[in-house]
Amino acid sequence: MNKRAWLNEPYLIINFVLAGVIMLIMIYSGIFSPDKDDYPVVCIHEKLTGEPCVSCGLSHSFSLIIRGRIDEAYEWNKYGMRIFLFFAGQLFIRFVFSVIYANHPDSRNQLIIYDIIGSSALFLIVFMPFLIWIIKFS
Predict the structure, then answer these.
(1) Inter-residue long-range contacts of 47-54, CB under 8 Å, 24+ positions, other chains counted
(2) What sign results for the dihedral spanned by CA atoms 31, 37, 40, 42?
(3) What pLDDT score was predicted for residue 89?
(4) What are the Cα distances from residue 69, in Å, to 9, 36, 89, 121?
(5) Helices 10-31 and 80-103 meet at what angle, rounded to 10?
(6) What DSSP character marks residue 45?
(7) How far apart are CA 28 and CA 38, in angstroms?
(8) Maximum Cα–Cα distance for the chain, whole Å?
(9) Contact, 130 vs 54, CB < 8 A?
(10) How many other CB atoms are found less than 10 A from the CB of residue 48?
(11) Which residue, among 121, 97, 116, has the nearest Cα to 107 in the 3D structure?
(12) Average pLDDT for consecutive 10-residue bins of the chain (138 residues)?
């Protein structure tokens, strides 16, 4: 596949965008310090209700994971590591599946189906506590 052909492939564009978003999350986690507590994004739920939500502390947790301070990361959010690993795994999958997609045109449809089913199942497993919390809170 030539360099400009990927611009006409929606699957590759979506993978590129998703990888970019994940990279921005990782960069955000690396830039802002858990020690300085200088995160620009705050929890709207906690700000409105005064009560923490299931995602409170994720920014701290991610920043600590990036810095290798795993035990502290669990203190900020007990789901932080599983979500971090989900994003890291998705970043890897986006790159690997894009290469396979570009190099094996005969198996593209199957690859897309495997990607959708696998990523959806993994998402549901990883984010189940959040989905349950949203249902309970509603």
Answers:
(1) 53/133, 53/137, 54/79, 54/129, 54/130, 54/133
(2) positive
(3) 96
(4) 40, 15, 19, 29
(5) 150
(6) H
(7) 11
(8) 54
(9) yes
(10) 8
(11) 97
(12) 72 96 93 81 80 85 94 93 96 96 94 96 94 84
Rounded CA separation 76/114 (Å):
34
Residue with tokens 């669990």: 74
Sorted by sequence, the CB contacts under 8 Å of residue 91 that are 6+ apart come out as 19, 22, 23, 26
Q: Tokens in use for 106?
A: 């005969």
Task: Give the Cβ contact number of residue 73 at 10 Å.
Answer: 24
CA distances from 78 to 56, 63, 74, 103, 117 (A): 10, 14, 5, 40, 26
Q: What Rg value do the Cα atoms of the chain yield, rounded? A: 18
- Measured from the Cβ of residue 10, the count of other Cβ atoms closer than 10 Å reads 8
The tokens 């995160």 sit on which residue?
39
Which tokens belong to 26? Answer: 């990782």
